[in-house]
Design brief:
Strand content: 15-25%
Number of helices: 3
Distance between the termini: 61 Å
Number of domains: 1
Number of strands: 7
Order of helices and strands: HEEEEEHEEH
Shape: globular
Structural class: alpha+beta
Strand order of the largest sheet: 4-3-2-1-5
Helix content: 40-55%
Largest sheet: 5 strands, mixed
Length: 130
């Protein structure tokens, strides 16, 4: 029984390491796409965050470009990638929010419940073609 558990634990650890390595490689590739975009990008605009319930927008102090029509995914002028969804907050209406950058994916929305996923490259190219 112990051998089986040790084998399972090793297999799980190996799988997790492979997945983390894949994510890192994809993030590096996505960062290169974003860096290429920044060299050609149009004028940025102020970015805001949307509350989870979809009713309230909060200031962020960030400048950048929204990647989707819902204005919930963006890239800032320094090349950081953000998902701009936050909990509703009365205080944030006055103080704003500070979203945390995330690792950029190559496919935005992959694995989401709504089934809408699109390559990051396509979203960046859509901004450049406006």
């Amino acid at each position: 029984m112990t051998d089986w558990r040790e084998q399972r634990d090793r297999a799980v650890a190996a799988h997790a390491a492979a997945l983390a390595s894949k994510r890192e490689a994809e993030a590096a590739q996505a960062r290169r796409l974003i860096a290429d975009f920044l060299r050609q990008a149009p004028a940025p605009e102020p970015l805001t965050c949307l509350s989870y319930n979809g009713r309230t927008r909060y200031r962020t102090g960030l400048m950048g470009w929204y990647l989707n029509t819902g204005r919930t995914v963006a890239v800032d002028t320094s090349g950081e990638y953000y998902v701009l969804l936050v909990p509703q907050s009365f205080r944030a209406r006055f103080t704003g929010v500070t979203p945390r950058p995330q690792q950029p994916p190559l496919i935005v929305g992959e694995g989401a419940r709504d089934g809408e996923s699109i390559p990051l490259r396509t979203l960046l190219n859509n901004i450049l073609s406006r």
